[in-house]
Amino acid sequence: MRANLDRSGFTPRSRPRNGNGGAHHQGEILITGGAGFIGSNLADRLLREGRGVLLFDNLSRAGVRRNLEWLLGNHPRRLQVIVADVRDAGAVRTAVRRSSAVFHFAAQVAVTTSLSEPLEDFQINAGGTLNVLEALRGMDCAPPLVFTSTNKVYGGLDDLMLFESATRYRPSGNGLESGGIHERRPLDFRSAYGCSKGAADQYVIDYSRTFGLRTVVLRMSCIYGPHQCGTEDQGWVSHVIGSFVEGRPFTVYGNGKQVRDLLYIDDLLEALLLSLENADRLAGQSFNIGGGPANTASLIELLELVANLSGKHPELRFAPWRPGDQKYYVSDTAKFSAATGWRARVDVRSGVDRVYRWLKHRPPYGAMSQSSSPATH
Question: Is this structure's pTM higher than 0.90?
Answer without folding.
Answer: no
